[in-house]
Amino acid sequence: MGSKNKLKRFKENETFKNVFQPKRDELVNSNFNLKGNWRTTVFKNDNPLILELGCGKGEYSVALAQKYPNKNFIGIDIKGARFWRGAKTAIEEKIDNVAFLRTQIELIDYAFAENEVDEIWITFPDPQIKYKRTKHRMTNTEFLKRYKQILKPEGVVNLKTDSEFMHGYTLGLLHGAGHEVLYANHNVYKQEGSPEEVTSIQTFYESQYLEQNKPITYIRFKING
Prior knowledge:
The protein is built from ten helices and eight strands. The chain is globular, with a radius of gyration of 17 Å. The chain has helices spanning 3-15, 24-28, 38-43, 59-67, 80-92, 108-111, 141-150, 164-177, 196-199, 204-211; strands at residues 19-20, 49-53, 72-77, 98-102, 117-123, 151-161, 180-185, 217-222.
């Protein structure tokens, strides 16, 4: 994407009422006024709050919002020029139960209050295969601690990935640490009984993976401890 195009998207994001771009200092110094107030201030209802981490273009967040009008969705990514697409689509199609937050996933516990979130989706994250990249894997122990902090006691995490490595790494870590695996599937489109929200929504990249016959894996789990 050309830098001109990027700048145009950044500018447009600033005008979107469904896009929130707090500065790092604002979050870290606890000056972010939406923390604990997402439902009342942004969505103006008391419906469940669901996050998609590393939402990319925002396709999954928008599709979930369309499918579940009685739930609130927030797509989170550091790359605003990417989720511009999802934010614009939501505005054009008047989908009011989805918003976008531009921040790093490491700062998630500064953007949401304890027990504020009902559910988390992690869709096709970079598996960070090299050992020295372990700290960047979105299901590592440190990230799970952050998710646990903002999730309700009954809150769940969904991981959907085309990476067998990420699937295996996460399953091993969950079992090893005593977390509760509610559902795990190595190939959601080949095995019967896969949850509908997992198979009925596909991102652009996911349809490409499926064309290449790449299995899509899925884990639904609860973080204990």
